[in-house]
Each structure stands twice: as structure tokens, then as C-alpha cells.
Amino acid sequence: MRRDSRQGSLARVLAAGIVGLGLCLAASPARAQDTTGANTTRQTPPPGGPPRNFALPPRQNLQLDNGMQVTLVHYGLVPKVNVLLVLRSGNVDEAADQIWLADLTGQMLKEGTTTRSATQIAEQAAGMGGSVDVSVSPDQTFISGEALSEFGPRMIALLGDVVEHPAFPASQLARHRADLQRQLSIQTSQPQATTAAEFNKLLYPDHPYGRWFPTNAMLGSYTMDQVRGFYQQQYGAGRAHLYVVGVFDGDSVQQAVRTAFSGWAPGPAAVGNVPKPVTERRIILIDRPGAPQSTIYLGLPVADPSSPDYMALVVTNALLGGAFSSRITADIREAKGYTYSPFSTIATRYHTAYWAEVADVTTADTGPAIGEIFKQVDSLRAAPPSPQELAGTQNYLAGIFVLRNSSRQGIIGQLAFMQLHGLGDDYLTQYVDHVHAVTPEQVQEMAKKYLDPQQMLLVVTGDRTKILKQLQAFGPVRAAP
Amino acid sequence: VPANKLQTMLWAEADRMRGLDVTQANLDNQRSVVKNEVRVNVRNQPYGGFPWLDLPQLANQNWHNAHNFYGDMKDLDAATLQDVQAFFKQYYAPNNAALVVVGDIDTDTAMAWVRQYFGGIPRGPALQPTDVSEPPQTAEKRITKTDSLATRPALAVGYHMPARNTPEYYAMGLIDQILLQGDDSWLHQALVQEHGFAGSVNGGINLLGDMFDYDGPMLWTFYMFHDAASPGDSILAVVDSVMDRIRTQPVDSATLARALVKERSFLYDMIEQNRDDLLASFSLFDRDPARINQLDEDFAEVTPALIQKTAEQFLRATNRTVLMVQPAAKNAAFTGAAGGRVRGKGTGR
After folding, report:
1. pLDDT tens, position by position, for chain A (481 residues)?
2. Do B225 and A25 lie within an 8 Å CB cutoff?
3. Phi-psi region of A129 (alpha: psi -120 to 50; beta: other; left: phi over 0)
4. Which residues, at least 6 apart from B116, have a Cβ–Cβ distance to it below 8 Å?
5. Region of residue A306 (phi > 0: left; psi between -120 and 50: alpha; otherwise: beta)
């Protein structure tokens, strides 16, 4: 199921707020003051030491005879271990009348196996200090469990049973269909989700990446035969990669992996279904009467992670809108106060990607905010950034790369990303070097090559009576169908 | 931050504490940003403020716990430069702060930098103690909130917690594991697995943090999104049967053992990922950062009898607040799109 990147738990929303406040204070340079509070001269910050080398934790790769890939990573000091099975299977494998069938299939896995009831799965996982979770993304399905280290082998056995021997009890189907219908109803009431859905629909017409929402009736029609059919077509060892990350005994974990997964059939191979995204300047308005803010998605298709341009594009995105200190955020939030949580992103799918600037802006400031975003894009296309500005972005990216690799979940996420996009180890080992190798001229070149405002798709959800004229300043406006 | 930038960060934090550059211009700008924060998280969101902003205001009586802590638009508009400067001077002061550094550092070098940059910052004004105490709740509260943007009903229940660091507080930590955390929990099994009222039931102690990083009164909260076909009252009847079960008989040893394993697993994650927050909380609230080392023991001392006694005392209906969200009638049917005018903050009263 696609989720807008801001549709997280409440804690995440609020954490973002707290972090945002902290960063905004840090971003506005303080003046040194004497004890009476009078301003004196600005100080120069101590530069800090040279960056330390980042060493990847040791990894071990195996392949089982049925084709399943296995990666074991010894990491951390706390006696816990994460187990994640990643399948090359997801919403991309749904037909036009099967939207969210991948999600329904994933949820049904937890409803029991041929030898364990749903309650037994839940209680056994909890007894290891963890839980079994299933989530589905456009390209991948994630079946995960975490446990105290001593239970690692038992968690591997439990996940193996869940993915290989699902019972698919008919009694539970109606409940899960109703859950998905409720989620659909709630998601389609959120302006961020509906805006993202329309943006993807127009970018990826007639492709699963563009089909975010099923209809209520479609969800209600799914049968257990369809769930079984999806499972038989889209699951199997040949398209599975198991990651074990944390503190564990290598021998007993390897043994447990072989015992749990060697008997799993390879299954049908994954079908690479690469879309042809549409690049075209269009302005779409979704009416939300009375909305105090307008939700903006502005962007276009760009190079994906398999492209040689990708790392330079990552740096360009961070400098333009991806980092908190980026130009667009500094402009529309820190200088103008139009919005709270603007960001730009490179959304990656298998062999395709798009860049988008996303923001919720005050209704009255909708036109000015969009104008500023275009202005910042144009400005980067017109001239390279200063070496000093670029160095700040590069330090930021190198720093968060280390942080991103400093948790079990983070390491697994990186490895699963590399696996999907076919990236070798040098993606990790050379990441910091590649970031630092990008030149100011390359940043300008990336902006010129990929971020042409005349080719950008703009989708806005807001109060039509108040924003139609503001949008018309940028071209003809169409209502969302 | 990368470990090599520790000195830079200590300088920056000290520089900020010594004297923040608050001007009318940056105050006006950040006021606008914060108002947009409230709009995106509350006013333009279905279920905006549910239940994290709504429930404390409904459950508590003391103004300090019961006001809109996100800030009403009129309060945000009313804040003056002098208000902000005075607030900063009073609270962002060394005598009201704990500094924690966790990571790949040399302790002696780090301490020398801390002394160098923070040592000369003068104390702020003495802090006056604030009375945040809550009078005991004696009758159940039930509130219905109409949400013009929502499409399905939702239900939240909050119980006042025992005081921090008491045996009952640790018992509630385990009760949270037994009743609410994970698919094996009693509420999940009853409300989701058995009755299918919702896809999940979520919550915990302190929705805006965790059971360790708060001081003063707190709620244990759970909430779910359901269908109009299952009215809140019928869900509450099942909730009551779960509460009666834990209040009227001691939990068996397998249940307690599983709760302890879950709690330990949670603590390990906290110690690995939130060690700075734990140490800062125990420093600020207890003046005892070493408490981090005894948490496991404090939970291990909880007995089935204490769990039952704690449940009996705190999980009574008269100690709880129930909030039911009703979608405005025009949204109640599936429409596939939001509609309706945004009305006020909807704090439910």
C-alpha cells in the first residue's frame, strides 16, 4: 500500500515537529551576548575534527539451493536480532482490478499456518520479545520479526512457517476486507494522500505505480481464491532475500535458516514491469472546500538509482529541497513562513524515479509559494552553487549516511534498497566519497538536465474558490477527474 | 551528528543557551511556521488532534494539564517579543538543563569542551515550582466530538496513571504489555482478532513519548478507528470485559513471563536508541541518571498480585475518559473524497 511519506505514526509527525524546531533554532545563527544580553560580535564556530572512517559491519552472504539469498550482518552490542524476509513482490504485481490484493495477501499470512493459529503466532513471537509484521510496498513485501538474541533461530523458524505454510482461513477474509475498506476511507479523506495519489496516477498512467487507491467495491469483491492465486504467483524462494542483523550466533542462525527455508519452492520468477512515466507540464486542482492550507505536489520523472547520474542527483536534491537547510525550505519556511514541513524527495521505484517538492502551504500563500519554488529551481539551473554551500550539503549527506547505518533497521533498509536496484557493495563503501566528489558545476548540470519547470506536473488540493486564480498564473488549470 | 563534530555542536548549543537572537522579524516568521504546523497536523487533517491533543484536555482538570498545549491561534498571535524573551531567559538556563552526550567520544575531552563552552553561562532566575497535580477522578467522562473531515468513527480511552516510580507505575508498564502492546495483547485479541472492530488498537503510556520521559500526571491511552456498524458502546462493552478479567484475577505465570520478555526487549531498544533521552529524563526528573541500570530489576519485582491490585485501583471506569469521534453525517457514507468545512480546533468541548 502506498503511503505518503508524511503519513506516519503520530509520534513521527510530532518528532518531526520537535526536530524541525531544534534545527530552525540551530539554523539561525545566534549572536554572542554578554551577560546583560547586549549583542556583541559574531563568533566563528570551532570546525571540529576530520571525519572518521566509517566501517561497514561484517557481512556474510549465502544462497540456498532453491535460489533464496541470505545476508547475515553482525551488528551492535544490545542482545537483539532483527530478521527480515524481503520478497520481490508488491503492488506492482497487481492487475488493474486487483489493487491492494498484495496487501490483503500479506495480512492474511498472519492469520495462521497449517500448524499454528494466528494467536499462537502472536504469542510465540511475543514470547521471544518481538512480533511478526507484514507490510507491502510498490516493489517489495516485507515479512519481519525481531527477538532477543537467544531466540533468533526460533524467530527464523516462525517466519519460515508464516511465509511457506499459510492456512488462509476463510473465516478471517471478511474482517481484513473491511479493514482495508476502512483504511481506504480514511486515507482518501487525507489531503496529502489524495494529492500524492493523483500525482502518481498522472505520472504513471496504466501502470500499477499509478494505481494508489482501489474502489470500495473492488476491495469487497476479493475472494480467498484470489488471495491464494496471488500467493502462488508472487511468492517463492527464488525472489526472496533474508536478512539477519544484530547480535546472534552465526552457526545456529545459519542452521536455522537452512532448516526453515531449504524446502521452500522457488516459485515463479519476478516480472520486471518498468513503466514509461509521462513528462508534461500540467496543473491539476483537487477541490477541498474550506481548506486552510493547500497541499502541493510539484515534480517530474528523473534518473533512478541504477543511473550514473543518481548520486549527483541525490546531492542536488538535498541542496535544493531535501535537507532542512536547503534553498526551498530556507525560502518558503524560514524566510516567508508559508509552510511548516516542506521537503523535496526522489521517490524511487524499480528502474524509475520521480523528483517532487511537497508542501502544505497557507491557502492565501499558495501562488506565492509555488512561485518561490519555481524561482529556486530556476536559480539553481542558472548558476552553480558556491563551493561552500555545496560542502555544507555534502557534509550533511555524509553525516546522515553514518546515522542511517547505525541501527539494525537502518542497515536492513539500506541493504534491501541496494538489492532492489541492483546496486553493488560500492554503493555503500563509496557513498561518502561519491557524495564529496560532486562538483558545483555537476549540481547545476543535474538541475538543468532533470528539473525543467516547463515539464513539471503540479497537483494541488485546496479551496478552489480561493486558489484557482493563484494557480492560473502558472498556466491552464484542470480539475481532477 | 558525526562524532568529529562534537566540539562544533557543543559550541552551538552553548552559544544558543547563552543568548538566543530573538527578534520581532524571526518571531513573526516562526509564529507563521507554527500556525502552519497546527493547520497541517490538526485543522486540515481528519482526526486532527485525536487523541493525543484532545484526551489530556478532557481527562485533566488542572489548567497546566488541561489546556490546548499546541496553542490556540489567538494565543500564538498574542505572544509578544517580550513574552518569548522572558520564557527563554527563565527556562533555557543551565540551572534548568541536563546535558547528555552519547556516542563514540573521549569522555575527558568532551567534558573539557562542556566546561569551556557552558561553564561561564550564568544561572537563570530561580525556578518557581509549578503545581501540576491532578485531583483524583471520581466519575467516568464520556465525550463525543464531531469531526467534519472524518469518514469513520473512532474511539479513545485514557486512564490516569499511578505516580511515577511507584511499584504500581512499574506494574502499569507490564499491564501495558499484557493488554495493549503486540498482537498477543488482550485488547488486540478481543477487539481485532475476535470481534473485528478495527484493524489495530494502538496507544500506550504517554502518547507523545514513552513511559520514562515525562514528569507529573499522565494517561495510559488506547485508541482505534472503527465502523459505524459497530457503535462505540458495543466496543466499550468488550473493553470492559477485558478490564474485568485483569481486575478480578491474578494473571498466570506464562502471561507475566511473556510481559517481562516484551518489556526487556523494549528496554534494550530504548537503551540502544534512546539512551540520551533516558539519561536526560532521569537527570532532570530524579537527579539520578543511574536509574537506567535498575529498570529491569524494578519490572522484575512486579507480582501477579500487584498487577491485579494496580488494575483494580487504576483500570476502573471512574478513572477513565472516553472520547468518541463521529464523522459529520455527509461524510459517513463512503465518498472517496473529503468534504466539509473545517470548523475550529475541535477539542471536543
Report:
1. 654 433 333 333 333 333 333 233 333 333 333 333 444 467 789 988 887 777 788 899 999 999 999 999 999 999 999 999 999 999 999 999 999 999 999 999 999 999 999 999 999 999 999 999 999 999 999 999 999 999 999 999 999 999 999 999 999 999 999 999 999 999 999 999 999 999 999 999 999 999 999 999 999 999 999 999 999 999 999 999 999 999 999 999 999 999 999 999 999 999 889 999 999 999 999 999 999 999 999 999 999 999 999 999 999 999 999 999 999 999 999 999 999 999 999 999 999 999 999 999 999 999 999 999 999 999 999 999 999 999 999 999 998 998 888 899 999 999 999 999 999 988 998 999 999 999 999 999 999 999 999 999 999 999 999 999 999 999 999 999 7
2. no
3. left
4. none
5. alpha
**Which residue of chain A has the CA closest to B334?**
A185
Distance from the A188 Cα atom to the nearest Cα atom in chain B, whole angstroms: 5
Contact A293 B44 (CB under 8 A): yes
∠ CA A113-A2-A432, rounded to 5°:
100
Does A30 sit within 8 Å of B19, measured CB to CB?
yes
Model ipTM over 0.85: yes
Dihedral sign (CA A455, A456, A462, A466):
negative
DSSP, collapsed to helix, strand or coil, labels residue A80 as strand
pTM of the model: 0.92
- Å from A417 to nearest chain B CA? 22
Contact (CB<8Å) A50/B4:
yes
